[in-house]
Specification:
12 helices, Enoyl-CoA_hydra/iso, 6-stranded mixed sheet, binds octanoyl-coenzyme A, 4-stranded mixed sheet
Length: about 260
């Protein structure tokens, strides 16, 4: 397996695990990390033996944002011509579901990275925010867009304009996170959720993710048409026949992922 400098990457059964690992910088996203993350996600996303990816950080920080020290002296031209965060597009485009398991700080690009994932499990220690305004910039990786869609215009505006952080309880109430668990249970809960997803038919999981994403990106009418087209097309799969036969025969399905 590829050696990474800023990540710990491992495979556990049908689940790919990626742990951000820049302990001295609270997992700040520098270009090395985002390149490596893009490569690690792409490798899992093209492996049909992987049915779900877990992305996590440390107990202290999921990620405290883009690396401010790396970015500080760049010109607008440099930022435009050499986007240091291009690797993250692989995360937001992945077909495989990604669970963000967040403990500690998820700030700026860290919060935006969590929002690129499909499920956000938060430890009770998690803190979310978009503090870019304090640095003289605004969010640039989805913080004004995905956050607004996740928690609504007025709450997102307050967070982006003040730069304040939300704790896990507030984030759950606002709808930013799927579930809050004790920090000691975070990785076990992420593993259980990932194994459950990975036990389903992979093409059906891809299809579900596709339809869910459409809800964020299209009009309701277009999304409903897409959902219906995907739903009917799934009757071409052996896994649909197996799933429904298993129900009739009162047994668990054995999905072959085709
Ligand atoms: N970048 C670089 N280094 C960082 C970052 C960061 N984002 N966050 C923390 N670190 C470093 C600190 O500098 C420190 O290093 P050192 O020991 O060498 O001084 C180390 O990590 C530990 O941090 P602290 O000592 O500050 O730890 P505290 O517990 O006192 O504070 C905080 C923790 C509150 C998280 C604090 O570190 C902090 O405020 N960090 C910055 C948070 C922030 O502003 N994030 C937003 C960054 S901008 C962004 O994400 C924009 C993304 C969009 C890009 C779009 C491109 C197209």
């Amino acid at each position: 397996m590829t050696a990474y400098e800023t990540l710990i990457v491992e495979t556990r059964g049908r689940v790919g695990w990626i742990t951000l690992h820049r302990p001295d910088a609270l997992n700040a996203l520098n270009s090395r990390l985002t390149d490596e993350l893009g490569a690690a996600v792409a490798a899992f996303d093209t492996d049909e033996n992987i049915g779900c990816i877990v992305l996590t950080g440390s107990e202290r920080a999921f990620a405290a944002g883009a690396d401010i020290k790396e970015m500080a002296d760049k010109s607008s031209h440099e930022m435009t011509m050499h986007n240091p965060f291009a690797g993250l597009e692989t995360v937001s485009r992945a077909r495989t579901p990604i669970i963000a398991a967040v403990a500690g700080f998820a700030l700026g690009g860290g919060c935006e990275l969590a929002m690129m994932c499909d499920v956000i499990l938060a430890a009770d220690t998690a803190r979310f925010g978009q503090p870019e305004i304090n640095l003289g910039v605004i969010p640039g990786l989805g913080g004004t867009q995905r956050l607004t869609r996740a928690i609504g215009a007025y709450k997102a505006a307050e967070l982006v304009l003040t730069g304040r952080m939300m704790d896990a309880a507030e984030a759950e109430k606002a709808g930013l996170v799927s579930r809050v668990v004790a920090v000691s249970d975070l990785l076990d809960e992420a593993a259980k959720t990932a194994e459950t997803i990975a036990s389903k038919s992979l093409p059906v999981v891809y299809a579900a993710k596709d339809a869910l994403r459409a809800a964020q990106e299209t009009s309701l009418a277009e999304g409903l048409r897409l959902e219906n087209r995907i739903f009917t097309s799934l009757f071409a799969l052996e896994d649909q026949k197996e799933g429904m036969a298993a129900f009739r025969e009162k047994r668990s399905p054995r999905f072959g992922h085709h």
